[in-house]
Design brief:
CATH architecture: 2-Layer Sandwich
CATH superfamily: Nucleoside diphosphate kinase-like domain
Number of helices: 7
Structural class: alpha+beta
Strand order of the largest sheet: 2-3-1-6
CATH topology: Alpha-Beta Plaits
Strand content: 15-25%
Bound molecules: uridine-5'-diphosphate, magnesium ion
Distance between the termini: 19 Å
CATH class: Alpha Beta
Shape: globular
């Protein structure tokens, strides 16, 4: 079934100049980019995006990491994409691998490029985990007219 999913390039992927190779891998899943933007990750947006993690002890570290502060990145850029295609949600999650880069297959995106540093899983890419998450996250990051 044709689906849309939200993909975010996290600050570690941006600072390591990995975004091109990650987009290449996702495009080769047979998916199309329907929306793309650079957006400043405010604290408010980070909390809203990860509202499902409210109360988790690691959340402050994740917020700091997602804003770039954690790695000394001050411009707070995130690259956001809407990918579309058959079973896009599961396909992208499969290509990413496990949340913890140490447990992800070494040839997966997170296994190849991610690391665990200072208590945060710095795993390069976010992708929606379910249809419900995808809908909520796409609405949070994109206006309807920004998806072509
Ligand atoms: N995270 C972390 N430690 C944990 C769990 C999550 O640092 O124990 C970070 C990690 O960057 C992850 C994000 O928080 O990608 C969101 O967590 P989630 O459980 O939603 O994982 P995901 O859906 O990204 O695989
Ligand atoms: Mg998640």
């Amino acid at each position: 079934m044709k689906e849309r999913t939200l993909v975010l390039m996290k600050p570690d992927a941006i600072s390591k100049k990995l975004t091109g190779i990650i987009i290449d891998r996702l495009e080769h899943l047979g998916l199309d980019i329907k929306g793309a933007k650079v957006r400043v990750m405010t604290e408010e947006l980070a909390r809203e995006h990860y509202s499902n993690l409210a109360g988790q002890p690691f959340l402050p570290g994740v917020i700091s990491f997602m804003r770039g502060d954690f790695n000394g990145i001050s411009d707070h850029r995130i690259y956001a994409f809407v990918f579309e295609g058959e079973d896009a949600i599961a396909k992208v999650r499969g290509a990413l691998g496990a949340t913890d880069p140490a447990k992800a297959e070494p040839w997966s995106i997170r296994g190849a490029f991610g690391c665990f540093k200072d208590g945060v899983m710095q795993n390069c890419v976010h992708a929606s985990g379910s249809k419900e998450d995808a809908q909520r996250e796409i609405n949070l990051w994109f206006k309807p007219e920004e998806i072509v």
